[in-house]
Design goal:
Blueprint lengths: L3 H6 L3 E6 L9 E6 L6 E2 L5 H18 L4 E5 L7 H14 L4 E5 L3 H6 L2 E9 L2 E8 H10 L1
Parallel strand pairs: 4-5
Antiparallel strand pairs: 1-2, 2-3, 6-7
């Protein structure tokens, strides 16, 4: 978490502190200090800052014990474009070892994806899955 937090925030620091004496019975408290702010509990952070802090913890666990895939459901919703860009760079860097599947409505995140699939409803009650070949779409834009 101490390594990934500054990547997601563009600086700052974070740490985990055990809240009990017995290792197997204690809790964990998260302290986060985004750049330019005082060291504080996670409860005093904004929604976007909480999201980035939680992502740094989750991604740190994935680095410690990698899994073949990770499903993220609209984790970028509370993020602005600059924070979303840093989140996307970290996902792209970690995608060498883990396949990321994410649900998003965020334009910045969709631009980073290698494969896109969407759901559309052209008539009420009838959903269709639409796939986009990103490389082909980029080629069409460059040709035009």
């Amino acid at each position: 978490m101490g390594e990934l937090f500054p990547q997601l925030f563009g600086g700052g620091q974070a740490r985990l502190i055990l809240t009990g004496d017995e290792l197997l019975d204690s809790g964990v408290q998260v302290f986060a200090q985004p750049p330019g702010k005082k060291n504080t509990s996670i409860h005093l952070l904004s929604g976007g800052e909480k999201t980035l802090t939680a992502l740094s913890l989750v991604f740190a666990m994935f680095k410690l014990n990698p899994a073949p895939f990770c499903l993220l459901d609209e984790v970028d919703a509370p993020l602005d474009d600059a924070n979303t860009d840093r989140y996307c760079k970290l996902v792209k860097a970690m995608s060498d070892h883990t396949q990321f599947l994410f649900i998003t409505h965020n334009r910045v995140t969709m631009e980073m994806a290698q494969h896109l699939a969407g759901v559309t409803m052209q008539e009420p009650g009838v959903s269709r899955i639409v796939a986009v070949d990103v490389e082909q779409a980029v080629g069409m834009v460059e040709a035009a």
